[in-house]
TrEMBL record:
Keyword tags: ATP-binding, DNA damage, DNA repair, DNA-binding, Helicase, Hydrolase, Nucleotide-binding
Statement: the UniProt record of this protein carries the keyword Repressor: no
Top-rank taxon: Bacteria
Lineage: Bacteria, Bacillati, Actinomycetota, Actinomycetes, Micromonosporales
Organism the protein comes from: Asanoa iriomotensis
NCBIfam families xrefs: PRK10917.2-1
Protein name from the UniProt record: Probable DNA 3'-5' helicase RecG
InterPro entries (alphabetical): DEAD/DEAH_box_helicase_dom, Helicase_ATP-bd, Helicase_C-like, NA-bd_OB-fold, P-loop_NTPase, RecG/Mfd, RecG_dom3_C, RecG_wedge
Ranges of biased composition (kind: Acidic residues): 509-518
Keyword Coiled coil attributed: no
């Protein structure tokens, strides 16, 4: 008998074990047992051969209809052609060169699994020299096909050198020798949630006798995945609450009150509620860990600034970390403008009761950096804005009380250690994102944070209309788009033109672009440095055009943004460097070129840069994607709604679960295979509640050592760090 820790070579032999290790990264019995089938075929069930895509590696369940051998025309030898059908009228041709002897096996009526790459010849789909295994006829008993004896046939994630039936055979050998697997899940949880034993689930996921057995096995194994992640997050959350932090309670008649009194508008109800949540967190004796999510323009920055002022009132300092220098400079200008005299103490028009706002970025000159560092270390600058670089640039805080992290750049282990080194005690943390997060993602990826949501837009924000411009099908539509932009400029407004590439000839710009959805080659994405002169000489001739991208020197980037914000430029041709934080209320139109090269959430954030004033916004998504393609459907969905949460779910549907859960981040194999963040919301919620109940009474799971070990297998150290960073 074997255990899950047993090396595969002891069970399967050296040759097979080496192939599984080399091609599928499977080394132990546990690795193989947790290598779950991708799907299940059923004899007589339709495979739908007509849906196969050229270039796709497939495993098809089909029945031989006809096999014929004929001499080849262009060279000596014989060609065996086998027609396989799926029962719906879909027919696939299998071709074998100089292997006429296979005709004896591939007799009409035989069922089999056929694996290979789909090609097309004279309009017909075919597999050239496919691997195959034939299923036994009635009454036929062969060890070779025993793994397919059940009604449901497992089809595994496979490799060319290790086809699915080889994996199935290996799984059968392993399961036949596997000792009963101990169940780490507490019996009380199993009973409360009606979950079957782990040993049964692991066997039935590979060899289900019925769809009902398969559903039970999947539910149990999904539960294990969800429970492991939730236990990890709940434990981390509990440990964070045990850390000491200096409370920063609200102070009456301080900077915050003065700031609220000079705001030219009323806070929304949502901003007031979120402000109260944050204020309460800041007053506690453990570090705040809160995620603030809200649509572009929902007023997150004002909420963050009010939190920073509360900390300053309590004698501390606050820092806002931005992902780019452009955004850091934008925040510095915006926050300074909001504070007015309160941000200029010591100056002629400044308020002596205010606090300085320092900007610290890696590209500051030596003198400016020394001046900023002096303001930060002395405590004169209560608010410090910069990129993550400021953590390592020799900047010392007088009393760091709050860290605000903008745009999903959640501080990870290294950043947290650097911050702790700059504070006597762990600072409070507020993470902001303009990308709406579906509830299950919030629970699963951000589960160690409290979540606040701003769902209202401030009064005065204008609606944004979005349209897809099919440049390849209807070039006249693109001409109209440029005319529409000119009309906005003539009306006194400004515009963005966004491109997916910089275009300076660096390695990232010369890489082969990925193929289209249908597998055809693509031209390189349009580039800022190439598009800007074409527009200046063509449809936008005579307009004042600026260029902005991430490789410009910092002072040049800042100068371009200042010119655009001041109205000295009509059009800004830019990369996604304008995606977050850039606030120019006079900008009313955005044209996104090669829009199909951007993600759903990214497009939603980009268009949030327009319509920020009293005039309505317009976003035109230019694409050459074909009308029925997945890329075009994605753009149509973006154009059809401004509901960020709907788009976030669409984005999640189109991404692999592993991308969300971090399975692909390290390139290593992951055991998180079955859980779907969209389909399993109820199960994830139940797992979270059980995790809270268990950890609240036993924080380190000392009474459940087997459960603690199983979590370490499912959520390894790298994954735990990914969950922490987000």
């Amino acid at each position: 008998m074997t255990t899950l820790d047993e090396p595969l070579k002891k069970v399967l032999g050296d040759k097979t074990a080496k192939a599984l290790d080399k091609h599928l990264d499977l080394r132990t019995v546990g690795d193989l047992v947790y290598h779950f089938p991708r799907r299940y075929d059923e004899r007589g069930e339709h495979t739908d051969i007509r849906s196969l895509s050229v270039g796709e590696d497939v495993t098809v369940l089909g029945q031989v209809r006809r096999a014929t051998t004929r001499p080849m025309r262009q060279r000596s030898g014989k060609l065996l052609e086998v027609l396989v059908e799926d029962g719906t009228g879909g027919v696939l041709t299998l071709t074998f060169f100089n292997q006429a002897w296979r005709e004896r096996d591939l007799r009409p009526g035989r069922w089999g699994l056929f694996a290979g790459k789909v090609t097309e010849f004279r309009g017909k789909r075919q597999l050239n020299g496919p691997d195959y295994v034939l299923l036994g006829d009635e009454g036929e008993a062969s060890e070779e096909i025993e793994e397919f004896a059940g009604a449901l046939i497992p089809v595994y994630p496979a490799a060319g050198a290790v086809p699915t039936w080889t994996i199935a055979r290996c799984v059968r050998v392993v399961l036949d020798t596997l000792s009963p697997v101990d169940d780490p899940l507490p019996a009380t949880v199993r009973a409360a949630r009606n979950l079957g034993p782990l040993d049964t689930a692991l066997r039935e996921i590979h060899r289900p006798a019925s769809r009902e057995d398969l559903a039970r096995a999947k539910r149990r194994l999904k539960w294990d995945e969800a429970f492991a992640v939730q236990l990890t997050l709940v434990q981390r959350k509990l440990r964070a609450t045990a850390l000491p932090a200096r409370p920063r309670p609200a102070t009456p008649d301080g900077l915050l009150s003065a700031f609220d009194g000079r705001l030219p508008y009323e806070l929304t109800e949502g901003q007031r509620v979120v402000g109260a949540e944050i204020a309460a967190d800041l007053a506690t004796t453990h570090p705040m860990h809160r995620l603030l999510q809200g649509e572009v323009g929902s007023g997150k920055t004002v909420c963050a600034l009010r939190a920073m002022l509360q900390v300053v009132d309590a004698g501390g300092q606050a820092t806002l970390l931005a992902p780019t220098e452009v955004l850091a400079a934008q925040h510095h200008r915006g926050i300074s403008a909001l504070l007015g005299p309160l941000g200029r103490p010591g100056e002629l028009d400044g308020d002596p009761a205010g606090t300085r706002v320092a900007l610290v970025t890696g590209s500051l000159g030596a003198a400016a950096r020394r001046a900023a560092a002096a303001e930060v270390s002395s405590g004169a600058a209560g608010i410090v804005i910069g990129t993550h670089a400021l953590l390592y640039e020799g900047v010392e805080f007088n009393d760091l009380g709050l860290v605000v992290v903008d745009e999903q750049h959640r501080f990870g282990v290294e950043q947290r250690d650097a911050l702790r080194a700059k504070a006597d005690q762990p600072p409070h943390t507020l993470v902001m994102t303009a990308t709406p997060i579906p509830r299950t993602v919030a629970m699963t990826v951000y589960g160690d944070l409290e979540v606040s949501t701003l769902s209202q837009l401030p009064v005065g924000r204008s609606p944004i209309a979005s349209h897809v411009v099919p440049a390849a099908d209807k070039p006249a539509f693109l001409d109209r788009a440029w005319r529409r932009l000119r009309e906005e400029v003539e009306a006194g407004h400004q515009a963005y033109v966004v491109c997916p590439r910089i275009g300076d000839g660096t390695a990232s710009d010369t890489e082969e672009p990925p193929p289209d959805d249908d597998g055809t080659a693509r031209r390189p994405p349009l580039a800022v440095t190439e598009v800007a002169p074409l527009l200046a000489d063509g449809p936008l001739h005579g307009l004042r055009i600026g260029v902005l991208h991430g490789r410009l020197p910092a002072d040049e980037k800042d100068g371009v943004m200042r010119s655009f914000a001041a109205g000295d430029l009509d059009v800004l041709v830019a990369t996604t460097v304008v995606e977050v934080g850039v606030d120019v209320p006079n900008a009313t139109v955005m044209i996104v070129l090669d829009a199909d090269r951007f993600g759903v959430s990214q497009l939603h954030q980009l268009r949030g840069r327009v319509g920020r004033g009293s005039a309505a916004g317009l976003c035109l998504l230019v694409t050459e994607a074909a009308e029925a393609s997945a890329a075009r459907e994605r753009l149509d969905a973006v154009a059809s709604t401004t509901d960020g949460f709907k788009l976030a779910e669409l984005d999640l549907e189109q991404r692999r679960e592993g991308d969300v859960l971090g399975a692909t981040q390290s390139g290593r194999r992951s055991h998180l295979r079955l859980l779907s963040l969209l389909k399993d919301e109820k199960l994830i919620g139940e797992a979270r509640q059980e995790a809270i109940d268990l950890v609240s009474g036993d924080p380190e799971l000392t009474a459940h050592p087997a459960l603690a070990r199983s979590i370490a297998l499912l959520v390894d150290e790298e994954r735990a760090e990914y969950l922490e960073k987000g």
